[in-house]
Amino acid sequence: MTTFSRRLREARKSRGFSQERLGIEAGIEPATASARMSQYEKGVHHPGESIVKQIAAVLNLPVSYFYCEDDDTAHLLQCFHLLKGKDRKDVIDLVERLAFQN
């Protein structure tokens, strides 16, 4: 199982989507949505960039979340994606202070 396929399965299940529903909402033809999502989750096939973007939008996740090998980084991306405006800047400022403090 690839990092992408593992993260896809976890994200889909955590949001209560069936493979078919996620595929359809991501713009995949209804007749093949379930089978294609299953293949993506098993790592048999990898979706193209446009489908990954659509899946990420449906699940309200950044595309980069699906490719992070480190779980902590993926979780931070997930949380950061939900923030807006000043909250994002505040998080960046905090992380920079923590990362570069002497």
From TrEMBL:
HTH cro/C1-type domain span: 8-66
Superkingdom, taxonomy of origin: Bacteria
- Molecular function via GO: DNA binding
UniProt-listed InterPro entries: Cro/C1-type_HTH (IPR001387), Lambda_DNA-bd_dom_sf (IPR010982)
One Pfam family in the UniProt entry:
HTH_31
Which SUPFAM superfamilies does the UniProt entry name for this protein?
A: lambda repressor-like DNA-binding domains (SSF47413)
Q: What is this protein called?
A: XRE family transcriptional regulator
Give the originating organism: Pseudomonas mandelii
